[in-house]
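The passage that follows is intended for readers who have already worked through the single-chain material. We present the inputs for a multi-component assembly, then the predicted structure in tokenized form, and finally a short commentary. You are encouraged to pause after the input and sketch how you expect the pieces to fit together before reading on.
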Amino acid sequence: MKRTKLLLATSVLTAVGGISFAASHSEMEACEDCANDMTLVSWGGAYQASQTKAYAEPYMEMFPEVSVAWDESSAEAVAKLRAMNEAGNVTWDLVDVVASDAIRLCDEGLAMEIDPDEDLAAAPDGTSAEDDFGDLLVSDCFIPQIVYSTTFGYRTDLVPDGVEPPSDICSVFDLETYPGKRSLEKRPINNMEWALLCDGVAKEDVYDVLETDEGQEQALAKLDTIKDQVVWWSAGADTPQLLADGEVFMGSTYNGRLFSVIEEQDQPVAMMWDAQVFDLDGWIIPEGLPEDRLNRVKHFVKFATDTQRLADQAKYISYGPARESSAPLVGQHAELGIEMGPHMPTDPANATNTFLYNYEWWADYRDDIDAKFQAWLAQ
Amino acid sequence: MSDLKSTGPQTMDAPTPEDALHEAKALNAEDHRDASGRLVTADGRSLKSSLNRALRLQKARAMMLIAPLLIFVLVTFIAPIASMLFRSVENEIVANTLPLTTDRLESWDATQGELPPEAVFQDLFFDLFLAAEAKEHTKLGTRLNYESTGVSSLFRQSGRRLDDIGEAYQDPLEDLNEAWKEGAVWFELMSGQGQTSDGVVTNQIDRFNKLTSSNLRGDIGFAPSEEIAALLPKTTRAYTAWAVFTVFEDEDVVAAEDPWEAVYAALALDLQSPGAADRIAAYDGPQAELLQEAAANLEILPEADFTAAFLDIDEDWGDINRWETFQVYSPKYTDGYFLNSVDLQKTPDGFEARPENERIYITLFQRTIFMSLVITGSCILLGYPVAWILANLPTRTANLLMILVLLPFWTSLLVRTSAWKVMLQQQGVINDVLVWLGLVGDGSRLVMINNQFGTIVAMTHILLPFMILPMYSVMQTIQPSYLRAAKSLGATNWTAFWRVYFPQSVPGIGAGSILVFILSIGYYITPEIVGGTKGVFISNRIAYHISSSLNWGLAAALGTILFVVVLVLYWAYDKIVGIDNVKLG
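Having made your guess, compare it with the prediction:
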């Protein structure tokens, strides 16, 4: 009930906001030879809502002839796009995926290659899109939107008396100081890296070590020390639920989910940003769209990934905009009115110790390590 | 009445098979026979054929009635499943993407411990170049990465740097004579004069279609002369491949475009081949002087060493294990996926067991079958009394209780499963009640979820209606008078139930068990949510390979095995219990 009211309030706010966007962005040229229907694919939930409010609604305000349909299929996007491609009937126009999926879609020829400087808007100060996105353009097909991180949250009320709250990634593996269950994702990615970091491997050597059989065994052996205290999650909503119910002491999940547990649901949970793993989420345009639909999508993408729009999204969810030029424009949360800056994974105070996820490496080793990881889990 | 019938037809007055035999004998005595002694009908045909004809007509009419359903099921159900399962052996992508390489690799002997010869690397260059232009090489990289970790990035990175290899030949040729930069000059040279060699073009179109899984046909506006094809075989092949690509993919005109770097590399190889200089000197077709000039200045071209060039891109190309994988997975059909799904792996000389820390599927198959049996068993135990009560209550009360049984059916599966999470977790309802009652201490709350127990409880609950309904409809047909009769003859309650009632309800148990077992063996949502690590099924791995790892071949192989296991169990069930003993009502 409370949530419904909140949602209503938000949409009113957005409608008001939308009008002002429309006024400020009337210089956007109309789209020529374009289809008027678009099917956007995203993750559902609060994330999709933030995209609707920050991108789709202002766009439709400017171009009322356009209608947008959402499909909450991002989790199965790669498989579904492959099936659509084989059937020769691609029904999606723009798909939100994480960077590693974008790389695979690009490899499979299912996503279209883009030219950042031509297809994306330049920053207000004239910096080209390619420079503005910088290193985040990890694939030729990928249009980054946000930087998110996978990090830990813990129950403040379950920290033992007389002990400092956890602030080090290795407290995950320290059952003596911090007893209680942990929730970790049911896949090797991130867990293997954290295990090695806490087993004395230097940050820059992690992937070199993980490349060897001995390194993989070392990581699994480290995870073995906490295995019987781990609840394995597969959906992003699991850890927030487990934390809210007091089922686990600490757990990993996406930082935006933790933000909502802490700030929106007011649970006794706090963030532990140490060794947070940055990852990217963004758009890809499916290969093989007809001319008119492609024109419309390109027109929309140019608008939806400009500096202001990316900054606007951060009003609704605590993920950092992927453009450098958007960072200074990040303001307050649209409903709660709190400053969003300190909740961004990219905020300097949170990012003192971060870990960079190696896409190329995981693209190679994913299948191999996953087989070992699953066999280890089943033992 | 029905019992009477079975005591012997000869005592009955009604027509029996015997009567028909007698009549047939009587017929024989009359003259309804043709010359050879066969029975005939009034119109002179043999009785057998006219009977067959009538039956055929009847069958055809029956088929036409069910044809719409049959076609519907075939098109929307059987065909997609069959095509999906076919992926478990299909492996054409390797030979379609690297046709020349796989051909030549066939004669390479991996056991010698030496890298494949230079010729294989040359073929690899031309194969990979075309594939990279068509953006198909990364697909193959993904495919082979399932078998050999690291191929994915090997192909991706090599694809980016193939141009460099070609440029090493292109630049000196263009420095020698600017004319090599001209698309029109190339076109004239390659078109040659006299008889054209259309076979080359058809071959390359076929290859292009296989590579891109398309079906394009038509005139590409170019055909090499037979003379040129014999003089410069590699160049002709590379140029034609480029021409086909230019016309079909880029939709450009061949004569107006400059060829790829790979064509220059091919020309260099042709020029350097033994005896080429003499043949070129004797050639007098268009642009012969240009060709002769290049042949006379061979020293400007670098020595052809594609092995070194590939090793320079990535030293992984020097790893014999990689080449072994390519060779093992060259054939169009493979049993590799099936071997993988039973924890084996393919090697050049057959197969071997996977390393112990990668074995998982056999365990999962066993667990799936074991847990499905446990779930079926607990459904029988819980469902039988419920069905019995339902069948023996007055109809009005029974209908009311029936709604309670059906109610979970109308609730979303996810809601029901998540509700079990709330019930079973350590801070959940059951544990709270137990702690409140003082049965367990606060510090030693029971672990009832994220393990096999959680999966069994949640799935038993979800599948229970499938057990109760067939049991109920069978029990309804059991006459209460039988039980009364047994008791009046002196049976105890237990004997009456066990000897009289239970045997009659077995068909209901059979039907319910088959339903529940087959449903649970393929379940994956509930185990995924409440199963943790020890309570997941093989279907969770199938779902993972379909939607996450995209290894559809392996998923299809696992699915096929699961399908076969179900068929075998069904067959065993038929042998032991008898499928006639199953009734849905």
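Commentary: The beta strands of chain A are 37-41, 67-71, 94-98, 143-155, 182-185, 230-233, 250-254, 269-284, 320-321, 354-356. Residues 2-141+285-343 of chain A form a domain with the D-Maltodextrin-Binding Protein; domain 2 fold (CATH 3.40.190.10). How closely did your sketch match?
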